[in-house]
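Morning!

As promised:
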Amino acid sequence: MSILHIIAKNIGYIKRDIKALLYKWIFCNFGSKSSLSDPLKIHGSKRIYIGNRVTIAKQCWIAAMPLTSSDKCELIFNDGVTIGDFNHIYATRSIIFEKDVLTANFVYISDNLHCFEDINTPIKNQPIKQLKIVVIGEGCWIGEHVSIIGASVGKHSVVGANSVVTHDIPDYCVAVGSPARIIKRYNFDTKQWEKTDKDGNFLSKDN
Amino acid sequence: MFFISDLIKIGRFYRYLKYRNKFKSFGKNSDLMNPLRINGYKNITICNKVSIGQQGWLAAVPLTDSPICELVFREGAIIGNFCHIIATGSITIEENASVGNYVYISDNLHTYDNIKTPISRQSITQLNHIVIGEGAVIGDHVSIIGASIGKFSVIGANSVVTKDVPDYCIAIGSPARIIKQYCYENSGNYNLSGNK
C-alpha cells in the first residue's frame, strides 16, 4: 500500500487534526480527537473549553460572551460530548456539558434572556437578563428542536423532541412537552423505566 | 439569449448528472440542492419530479437488524430546507406529499435502558416503518418519530407525531392530536370532531 493510499484512507482524520492545530490556538482548550467542522459562528472562543473526543457537527453557533457583566463566563464541553447540526449554544455565565452528552439537531441552549420590562424601548435594545446556570448531566440525550432556557438536565435523562425546558429536570428521567414535564423515570427498585405523573410519582400498574 | 429559468434548468441537469449514478435511482426532473450530508446513497430512491431543499440530511443506514433499509421519495414529493430524514428500516414519502422546513422524520430511536452506559453509546431501536401518505402536508419544525401519516392529512407546525394519523385528518400539538376529519356525510366540509 502506497503512502497515497494511506493518506486517502485517513483524509478525514488528517483534516480534523490540521483544523485542531488552529483551534488549539483559538480556544481556551481543544482536546485530542475533537472535531469542529464548519461552524456557523464562534464568539468568545477564549472562554470556551473543549475536552477530548468532542464532536461538534456542522453549522453550530457556539458563544460565551459576558453580556450580563457576571464575573465569570464559561462554556465547557467535557470529554465525549456529541453536538448535532445547527445547534445554538449561548452562554453569558456558565453552560457545562458533562461527559458523553448527545444532542440532536436544532437544539437551543442558553442561560440568558432578553429583558422586556420597559415597554417604551424595543426589546432588542434592552439589556440581557441572566438566568440560572445550565448543567447538562452525564450521558444525557437531548432530542430534536429542543430549547433549554436557564434550566439544568440531570444525569442520564432524555428530553423528547420539540420540548422547551425551563425548569430543572432530575436524574434518570424522560421529559417531554412545552413546558417539559416528566413522563417516565427509572425505578431503582424494579430496575426498569416506569411511567410517572408530572410530579415524578410512579403510576400504579392498573392505570 | 439565456434567461434565469434556463440557468436553473442547467443547474438541475448538472445535479442530475452528478447524482444519477450515486443514488439507487434519481429521476430526471428531480432536484437535490446543496445537501448537508447523505449517508447510504445506494438505499435511497428518488423518483421523478422530486424536489429536496437546501442543507438536508438524508440517511438510509442499516444500524438495526431490520431486514430492509430504504428511503423512497415518490413522484412529485416536495421536501423543504434543512430536513433531517433518517431511515434504518423503511421510510416512504408518497406522491405529491409536501414536507415543510426543519422537519425531522425518523423510524428509530436511541435506547436508554441501560443506565450505566451513556445514551450516545447505546444501540438503536427500530420503530414502525413510516409512510407519509399521498398529498399529505407536513408543517415546519414537525418531528415524526415512528408513525405514519395518512392520505391528504395535514400536520400543523411544531407538532410531534408519535402515533399514526389516519387519512383525511388535521392533527396538531405535542403529541399530535386529531382536531378535524373530513366528513363524508356533509361532503366538502371538515367535521370538528373532538374524538382522538
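The interface with chain B takes residues 58-59, 80, 82, 85-86, 99-102, 104-106, 138-141, 143-145, 156, 158, 160-163, 172, 174, 176-178, 186, 193 of chain A (CB under 8 Å).

Hope this helps with the figure draft.
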